Amino acid sequence: MGSPSIRLGVDIGGTFTDVVLETGDGSFSTKVLTTYGAPENAIIDGMRQVCAKAGIAPQDIGQIIHGTTLATNALIERRGAKTALITTQGFRDVIEMRTESRFEQYDLNLSLPEPLLPRQMRYTVPGRMDASGAELVPLTRAEIEPVVDAIAEAGYESVAIGLIHSYLNDAHEQLVRDVLNERLPDVMVSLSSEVSPQMREYERFNTVVANAYIKPLMKSYLGRLRGRLADEGVGCPVFLMHSGGGIISIESAAEFPVRLVESGPAGGAVFAAHIAARYGLDKVLSFDMGGTTAKICLIKNQTPKTSRVFEVARTYRFKKGSGMPISIPVIDMVEIGAGGGSIGWVDALRQIRVGPESAGSEPGPACYGRGGARPAVTDADLVLGKLDPDSFAGGTIPLDPAASEAALQVEIGAALEMDAATAAFGLAEVVDENMANAARVHAVENGEDLGGYTMIAFGGAAPLHAGRLCEKLGVDRLLVPQGAGVGSAIGFLRAPFSFEANRSVYMTLGGFDAQQIVSLLTELADEARGFVRTCAPDADILSEFKVYMRYKGQGWEIPIILSEAQAMAPDAEVFERLFTEDYTRLFGRPVAGLDIEITVWSVNATTPPDAVARVSEAARGNAATTHAPRRLFDPALSAYTDAQVVLRDTIETGQTVDGPAAITEDETTIILPASRRAIRQPDGCIDITVKG
Asked: Distance between CA atoms of 281 and 279, rounded to whole angstroms?
């Protein structure tokens, strides 16, 4: 079974698969290109590499924690199973009608995303529950059987069941599942009352359809992964990172794969929160930029902000409402730009654009020499001197600067009458400004001013761009942790076992029912703890209580955190005070004269976090040893400068580096603008601040 002290973290990204091995003797990591056809191959390759570095055998590993973008990619690329939806008569078109919201109010040619399932793959049954969960119209087996026969004849692999108001009474959904299981035992079934027992049928139906759509794919992948690990002699437990920032069993992940949709970025947010705790930082901007996407997350009081709805597959990349809503607990992140593989191009107005198309790892950017001919962000970074062509990915992927220059010249330079270097500058500035602008909007939407925040940057591409991003955002401090290039995979190893259970039960403060609240929250706590027990049978488990509240008549709620005492001895005046305080903080003032509604109740069960030792920050010492300088483009000066090159491993605690500089390591490079100074902290973090 291996040693409990030897743990492996694996993050499958769109371009790279990151693998981190932690043993009692240290940490070992590698990045390998993601193998799209069989993602488990990259995991096995990376595992062998880090085991060789550590001098151990794969069978010595005691625990594997895995996060992946496979579920997200399957939804974006529409590569899921042949799936049917069974819903209530009259609600067949809910996932196509969407809501009345228009994300571009004045666009007459608005392009809405196609529903995951076309109309002919959506079936209805009679029967009806009302908004209180009472049965209005009964449902019989005889009414379900013809629908199941039609599904059998069409040859579906997976079926989603989403009936109206099933979050309050799931009896009809259970009956439909029973008939399906009896007549089609090999077909996978997903119930909305289990996947997402929340009000708002559009979001709930979308979520259960997405779960059913990717369930066969993820079950197959997880089964193959287990088989390949067994072939390597690895028999330890395998756990999955979920979107809410915790760890669940592989069995739960196979049953509810939609909870894995944001699992990779969630690991990065956990990693940043851990660093924030080490430095005692209460306001942190986590910046995660990899090969395909970039994400930002606000972390307050060392806890990532969470949400219960997010979107995937947006047709307008940065527009809320243009994607497919998924209603599950998730760390609240915003996609703030492109990754290293994102393609640059020129639009009809002669403006440089970046993404959303990505070169990924197959074929990759032009400089990879794997067949890519169009310029990516990595090509621009190479031409601007941010990357060393001979040491990229520890020297395992030699880069071709001439190929980057040619691609930039053909695709951007020729159209805009500029040389390759200017094209690279333009592409990089567009990327950085896109990210900065989206970060500002995200902060404003959450009532925050980024001026008092510290940025923590990780992911293979983030340290290349974070310094410039801080200049644009007015952020004075930037931390680049040790292992930043594989930050999400390290975050998996820091995450607790956790599961969040939630349910929609409508209640007003005017009709406050303390006994019902205690019963509901106790039931949710038992459900959440049950999931955690499947991963950690003997661990202590903490419960975190949350309710979603709004003024009567409003469309959306805000989350209100309750202590266990407030949850188990509920008081209407306390609920009102907590809501009013948070509402005022977010929106400036409360609304007088309106009743307050509670729509969703939530309990998150989690194992206690590991104790985090505070870093004793180093005093400024002498300058670090530098190597032969290289030409580096400084966007603030719009010119190339001679930048000192420093090997990160040679910087000792307290030593400083003044910009412009490139601090290099195997998995990434930190670009230090001329306006910044860096110091190495005792834990290996590179702490970057504005020059005094």
From this structure: 5
Torsion of CA 500, 501, 504, 506, to 10 degrees: -90
CB 42 within 8 A of CB 53: no
Written as one string, the DSSP assignment of 618-645 is: PPP-SBPP-EEEEEEEETTTTEEEEEEE
Residue 45 has pLDDT above 60, yes or no: yes
- Name the helix (H) or strand (E) containing 298: strand 293-300
Average pLDDT over residues 282-311: 85
Structure tokens at 386: 């941010």
155's tokens: 């040859």
What number is the average pLDDT over the span 663-678? 89
Who has greater pLDDT, 357 or 114? 114
* Dihedral sign computed on CA atoms, order 489, 6, 240, 215: positive
Q: Note whether 534 and 242 are within 8 A (CB).
A: no
Token pair for residue 423? 């094209």
Distance, CA of 544 to CA of 259 (rounded, Å): 19
201, amino acid identity:
E
- C-alpha dihedral over 278, 281, 283, 285, to 10 degrees? -40
DSSP states along 309-336: -EEES-SSTT-TTSSEEE-S-EE-EEEE
pLDDT in tens, 334-364: 776 567 777 888 888 898 888 777 776 667 7
Q: What residues pair up with 499 in beta bridges, in sequence order?
A: 605
In one-letter notation, the amino acid at residue 568 is M
* Residues contacting residue 373 through CB under 8 Å, at least 6 positions apart: 366, 407, 410
How far are the Cα atoms of 416, 514, 579 from residue 470, in angstroms, in the given order?
Answer: 28, 48, 34
> Contact at 8 Å (CB) between 378 and 464?
no
At 564 the three-state DSSP class reads helix
Host H or E run for residue 234: none
Q: 171 pLDDT band (50/70/90 cuts)?
A: very high
The b/e string for 654-683 (b: 16+ C-beta within 10 A; e otherwise) is bbbbebbbbbbbbbbbbbbbbbbbbbbbeb
DSSP letter (8 states) at residue 243: T
DSSP 72-92: HHHHHTT----EEEEEETT-T
Lowest mean pLDDT among 152-156, 312-316, 550-554, 589-593: 312-316
In 509-591, which ranges are E strands?
Answer: 542-551, 558-562
Task: Dig out the tokens for 136 from the structure.
Answer: 């209005």
SS3 247: strand
Cis peptide before 660 (omega within 30 of 0): yes
Beta strand pairing call for 454-458 and 498-508:
unpaired
Give percent of the chain above pLDDT 70: 97
Task: Identify which of 27, 33, 18 has the alpha carbon closest to the alpha carbon of residue 56.
Answer: 27
Per-residue model confidence (pLDDT) at position 578 = 95
pLDDT at 404 over 80: yes
**Cβ atoms within 10 A of the Cβ of 598, count?**
22
Cα 213 to Cα 100: distance, rounded to the nearest angstrom = 25
Query: How many Å is the Cα radius of gyration of the chain?
Result: 26
Contact 607, 540 (CB under 8 A): yes
Separation in Å, CA 258 to CA 213, 254, 315, 497: 9, 9, 20, 18
CA dist list (Å): 567 to 521, 543, 548, 602: 7, 10, 13, 11
Q: Are 373 and 402 a contacting pair, CB within 8 Å?
A: no
What does the alpha-carbon distance between residue 15 and residue 33 come to, in Å, rounded to a whole number? 6
Cα separation, 538 vs 561, in Å, equals: 27
**In terms of C-beta density within 10 A (0-12 exposed, 13-18 middle, 19 or more buried), how is residue 550 classed?**
middle
480: its two tokens: 């680049």
Closest CA to 186 of 87, 258, 260, 81: 81
- Report CA-CA distances (Å) from 342 to 291, 412, 512, 540, 676: 8, 14, 52, 44, 27
